[in-house]
Specification:
The chain is 10% helix and 51% strand. The protein has five helices and 22 strands. Strand 5 (88-95) and strand 6 (99-105) form a beta hairpin.
Length: 409
C-alpha cells in the first residue's frame, strides 16, 4: 500500500509540474502464456510462461501501464509493472539531434542493487555528442542501452553464443560479437562517413562503485589493453565488418553480399592469444532467400573450443523457412538444426555426439497490420512446438508445446 501511495504522489507532482504544456499519453501491455512439458518420465507438467521464458530465461508473465510525457525533445515516463522484480521504472530521454542523454532507474530496488553490486543491471545512464555534421560521435555510457550488436557488425553466423566464454551450440541461438553492449560501461568514439564507419571502444572507464570497493580500475590493464577497435564498410551489393579486441587477441570478421532477394554471408570469430593454449574460434556462413511472402535460409558453422581440458569440435547446420499464409495476419515458421560434437580429451578421441532439433511456430497478428514474428506486433497469439534430441550435449532433451497471448494498447 505504501508503494502505491508513493507512486500516486509522484504522479500528482509530475502533473502539476508539466501541466502547462507538452503531451501526455498512456500505453500498456499484457503477456500471458503456458508451456506443456512432454519430456518428463512421469506426468505432464504445465507451467506459466511467456515467449522468451522457456529457452532464453527472461520475460515472465507480466503486464504494465506506461505513463508518458513529452515536450519538444524531452520524453519522460513511469512504468508500473506486475513483475515481482520490476514493479516501478522511471526514466527520461532528451534528443537534441547533435547530442542526447538517457536515464532509467528502478527506484524501489535501486538501493538494494547498489549495495549488492548489481547497480549496472538495474539502471541505464548514457549520453553522446555528435560533431562535424554527425560525422564524429562521442558516447559515454555508465550503463548502456542494448545496441542489438549492430556496431561494426555484419554476418553473425560465427558469433560466439556467450560472447568470449564459449561457442557451445544452442538451437538457432544468435551469438554476439565483441561489440555487443547491454548495461555496459564504456567510452566510445565513432566516425561515420558515407560508406565507412570506424571507431574505438574503451571499456570500464567509468567504474561502478560497489559496497566495500573503491571502484577504481587500472587504466592500462583494465581499459587500454581491453580496448575494442572496429570498422565497417558498406557499398552495395556488399558490406564487410571487422573487430579487434586487444586484451585476448579477439578477432571478428564478417561480410554479406546482397543479390536482390538473396543474401549470402560469411563470418569468423576467434580468441587467438598466442600465450593461451585454450584458443576458441568459429567459422560460419549462410544463404537466405526472402522475396516477401515466402522465405528460406540455411546456415552452417564449424567451431573449435579449447577452453576446457577437452578441445571440442563443433559442426552445425541450421535450415529453416517461413510462409505468410495470410500476409496481413498469419505467419508459419520452422527452424531445423543438426549438430555434430566431437574432439579429444586427455589425448583420446571422444565419441561423436549427434543432436538435432525442430521448431514449428504460428504467429497470429490480431490487428492485421502485417504477418511477422514475436517482435513485429503487440497484440496476437503465438503457438510453438519445440523438439530437441540430445542425449549428453548442452541443449538437453526438450519436448515442449507452448502458447502465448500478447495484448497491447
Amino acid at each position: 500500500m505504501k508503494k502505491i501511495l508513493v507512486v500516486l504522489l509522484v504522479l500528482a507532482a509530475a502533473t502539476g509540474v508539466f501541466a502547462q504544456g507538452g503531451e501526455w499519453s498512456l500505453g500498456g501491455k499484457v503477456e500471458i502464456g503456458a508451456v506443456v512439458d512432454f519430456s518428463q518420465d512421469s506426468g505432464i507438467p504445465v507451467d506459466g510462461s511467456t515467449y522468451n521464458v522457456p529457452y532464453d530465461g527472461w520475460g515472465e508473465i507480466h503486464g504494465f501501464l506506461g505513463i508518458n510525457y513529452s515536450l519538444d525533445q524531452l520524453k519522460t515516463w513511469i512504468n508500473i509493472s506486475s513483475q515481482r522484480d520490476d514493479i516501478l521504472e522511471t526514466g527520461l530521454s532528451y534528443d537534441a539531434g547533435n547530442y542526447a542523454l538517457f536515464a532509467q532507474v528502478h527506484p524501489l530496488k535501486g538501493i538494494e542493487a547498489f549495495y549488492g553490486g548489481q547497480l549496472l543491471k538495474e539502471h541505464r545512464l548514457w549520453g553522446y555528442y555528435k560533431f562535424l555534421s554527425d560525422i564524429f560521435k562521442l558516447e559515454a555510457a555508465y550503463s548502456s542501452a542494448d545496441n542489438d550488436d549492430g556496431l561494426w557488425t555484419s554476418d553473425r553466423t560465427a558469433a560466439f553464443i556467450w560472447k568470449t566464454l564459449a561457442i557451445t551450440p544452442l538451437p538457432w541461438k544468435q551469438g554476439d560479437t565483441f561489440a555487443k553492449a547491454d548495461h555496459a560501461t564504456y567510452l566510445l568514439a565513432d566516425v561515420s562517413l558515407s560508406n565507412l564507419e570506424f571507431g574505438v571502444m574503451l571499456p570500464d572507464i567509468f567504474p561502478n562503485h560497489k559496497q566495500g570497493n573503491s571502484g577504481t580500475v587500472d587504466l592500462l590493464e583494465n581499459v587500454m589493453k581491453e580496448a575494442l577497435i572496429g570498422l565497417k564498410f558498406n557499398m552495395q551489393p556488399i558490406e564487410v565488418a571487422a573487430q579487434f579486441q586487444m586484451g585476448n587477441y579477439g578477432v571478428y570478421f564478417g561480410g554479406k553480399w546482397f543479390i536482390g532477394p538473396v543474401t549470402a554471408g560469411l563470418s569468423f570469430q576467434g580468441i587467438l592469444d598466442p600465450t593461451d593454449p585454450d584458443k576458441r574460434m568459429r567459422f560460419g556462413g549462410g544463404v537466405e532467400y526472402n522475396p516477401g511472402v515466402f522465405g528460406a535460409w540455411v546456415k552452417a558453422f564449424y567451431g573449435l573450443d579449447g577452453s576446457s581440458s577437452s578441445r571440442d569440435t563443433q559442426i552445425g547446420i541450421e535450415p529453416g523457412f517461413f510462409y505468410n499464409v495470410i500476409p496481413s495476419h498469419l505467419q508459419f515458421r520452422t527452424n531445423i538444426g543438426f549438430y555434430f560434437l566431437g574432439g579429444k580429451a586427455g589425448g583420446n578421441k571422444k565419441d561423436l555426439e549427434v543432436a538435432w532439433a525442430v521448431q514449428p511456430e504460428l504467429f497470429w497478428n490480431f490487428l492485421g497490420t502485417g504477418a511477422g514474428t514475436y517482435w513485429s506486433y503487440g497484440t496476437g497469439l503465438i503457438v510453438r512446438y519445440r523438439l530437441v534430441a540430445d542425449n549428453v550435449g548442452p541443449m538437453h532433451k526438450v519436448n515442449q508445446f507452448d502458447v502465448n497471448f500478447k495484448f497491447s494498447f
